[in-house]
Specification:
The protein is of the alpha+beta class. The protein has helices at residues 2-7, 35-43, 63-70, 111-120, 127-131, 143-150, 183-192, 212-223, 277-280, 356-378, 385-394, and strands at 23-29, 47-52, 56-61, 75-80, 99-105, 136-141, 155-160, 165-166, 197-200, 202-203, 228-232, 262-267, 322-325, 329-332, 343-344, 350-353, 435-443, 448-455, 460-466, 483-489, 495-497, 510-516, 521-531, 538-545. It contains eleven helices and 24 strands.
Amino acid sequence: MVRLLKSSAHLPTVQRPTSRGTTPWVVQFDGAIREKWKTAVEAEGAVIHGYVPADALLVEASPEILARIASMDSVKWAAEYLPAYKKSVDAQDGWADDREYVVALFQADDKPRIAREFGEMNVFVSREELTADNEWFHVKLSPEQVDEVANWGEVEWIELDRKPQFWGATVPETAGAAVARDPVAALRQAFDAGVRIQPINQGCADAGNYGVAARAVDRFVWAHPEMLVVAAAGNAAVDLAPADGVVDAGSIGSPATAKNVLSVGAAEGRRDVARVWRDSWPEDFAVEPIALDPMAQADGPQGLAAFSGRGPCADGRIKPDLVAPGTFVVVPRPPDSDDVGWGAAENDGEIYVGGTGVAAEQTAAAARQVRQWLAAERGIAAPSAALVKALLILSSRDLAPGQYGSGADQEIPGYRPNNVQGFGLLQERFPMDGIEPYDEEGLATGQVKEYPLHVPAGGRVGAVLAYSDSPAALAAGTKLVNDLDLTVQSPGGRIMHADGKAGTDDLNNAEMIEFEAEKNGIHTIRIEARNVPMGGVQPFALAICHPIAEAGMPAETEEP
């Protein structure tokens, strides 16, 4: 294929070209993508639509332009982005009947032509869909029509349309409100009104997939880095495959699967409640110890709400990021409303509510306090969403092992982050002393930034790296685009990696290191940009919590 592309000026294509005479292609380079290579691709007249691991770009070009690009010395391999790549697993399942799908285009400007094409297929497109400020349609298609639509050069992706669900809220009457099918429309409206912390308590139960909605939210945050989106992890977890008393993995919902949101699951509330999980979900949680576990308890180990969406994401990323109380949370009774939520509380003016949406709203309230603290105490008037996220993660509390001890029934793994609790339980207040927040402009591929800390022996240190990543191509197997890594070097040169790993993390855009200093001395926190193919540089946030070394304390520089 490489020899063909480099020797031919007219390349055959499988799919129907766009009205511009272009089709989508994947161009892989000979190593980490350099900015000058991207500039050269664009100079030939191609449009870059995204990054595909490893070291490849998804581009739109005519066959003639692509042939010139393929002849560049930096290009290792190139081929057409085929119709088969455009269909999600759900869209490939061979349904016998018509189903609702989301069809995403590379460019919103192509919506009028595609709407006409749908009309000629007798596929209905509403005027609202056509005029919406996005690049996708919700349409009903037959299996044959799915194949035909995938053959259009304007189309990037086709996925099954899973209807949004309501995950709970602190104001219960919102449960009956219409669910927006375009989460970005609500984010745009909130941002324009000056909002910088926005909870999302609705989403789709799509088994950890990163789809159109998740990518749209990532794209919005990438373009509006001050906007922290706090997304409910979903209430779709069950214990069915197999039914063994341990909640199944992979139930995190969208858009909580987005990289740039703060995804929040639900922990059990601290309240004396007799109701157990089998009472409310007799089929989903039928096996002990979950079946007879109280849905909230005042004393004893704290665990997760059984329904709380768990990771991993389909590409292996860790989600949720945090958990917060999400069962039997007391809120004021809504005025002039008959809605009693989960039931009337002891006080006539209060009711109980629950769900990961409730947990997300509590987390959003805590995020607003962190943002105010940064402005008032640290002079950071417009902190990035990544910095607020990093501080909340830094102050979280580890819930491991959960309620059922160790062994086969252990609820929460003994390391963090993990796909049950993420980094841990939200703390309403985080320690102010010894906190160092950094909002950095960014690093390019190969660049490193270091933060030396003088830590006394026995001192505990926590460091969290977070950043809002470039949106991913929907067909990419791995959704991380720009890869930054957090490490710590001890005084003797020992390197500690994030999240307890033996090496670097190439999946997640939030990482944490916790350690207790073995010796007094300089510990160097290091952020390295391993690969930044999109955006030129990757901005990031770093939050550090550490004890203050006494003045004049000698530093030891050798490991035993």
